[in-house]
């Protein structure tokens, strides 16, 4: 099996483990993190109804590097959440290790005023 496919399968296995423990509601949604090779994405999800409340990405952000763009994405998510009167969320790291862009996304959301 190719290495790239194996890495994806291992991440998805870890993600299932995280998802078995983390669930979001309308009052306390789940902040799901996803990172591609270029960009970082975040979404607030209500798992009881299966709907995405809001989302943001680093697609159009002008930042010095990917980590800084992820932090800005977290801040954008936090400001949008506060506008919708959501002040608390649970963080879903998506099977990724909690370093780099994933940590920056969570830190940016905390800096923006969201409690994780």
Q: Topology of this protein?
A:
Blueprint: H1 3-21, E1 30-35, E2 40-46, E3 51-57, H2 66-83, E4 90-92, H3 100-111
Parallel strand pairs: 1-4
Antiparallel strand pairs: 1-2, 2-3
Helix pairs in contact: 2-3
Structural class: alpha+beta
How far apart lie the N and C ends? Answer: 37 Å
Strand content: 15-25%
The biggest beta sheet, please?
Answer: 4 strands, mixed
Describe the structure.
This protein has 116 residues and is α+β, with helices and mostly antiparallel strands. Helices cover 42% and strands 20% of the residues. It has 3 helices and 4 strands, in the order αβββαβα. Strands 3-2-1-4 form a 4-stranded mixed sheet. Helix 2 packs parallel to helix 3. The longest helix has 19 residues, at 3-21. It is globular, with a radius of gyration of 14 Å. The termini are far apart. The mean pLDDT is 96.
Looking at this protein, list some descriptive labels.
single chain; 116 residues; alpha+beta; four-stranded mixed beta sheet; 3 helices; 4 strands; 42% helix; globular
